[in-house]
Amino acid sequence: MTDEVMMRLVEILGSVPFLLWVILLMVILEPGLKTIFIALGAVYWLPMARLVRGQVLSLKEQEYVMAAQVLGASPARILFRHIIPNTMGPIIVALTLMIPEAIFTEAWLSFLGLGVSAPMASWGSLASDGVTAITSYPWQLFFPAFFICLTMLAFNFVGDGLRDALDPRTRGRRA
Asked: pTM for the complete prediction?
């Protein structure tokens, strides 16, 4: 019952585009970093909820979980000894791959003027300022864009490395 209610909530919230969430929150709350965090949090937990649900449903049908049930292990023991440790790998990898997306989303919103306001600096607002002065000072656009790309690439490499390190199929084959 809880699973059905949660997944219907995830589907309803996921059906509203992200930009509409942001605009709605900007109207209700004051524009700024706090509003961006609330908007990102309201949207980015949805794919993670689907991932966790899929992993748990997949793992609870595995032979070692069934063997633990047959041997009389309590549901709490199965959850903490078998299911949670085996779901942490994909969750951590997905999280490290979602961070660059969140960074780019914040920069994009700040570039459009929906993100952080003038006293605070954001790579997106710096890039927006650089676009207006691109003919005279092209480096004002180059450096923020370069560091956005570099940061996103670094997080993607960390995510790929964690995926390789936490993949249970390759644990015994490492050289």
From this structure: 0.74
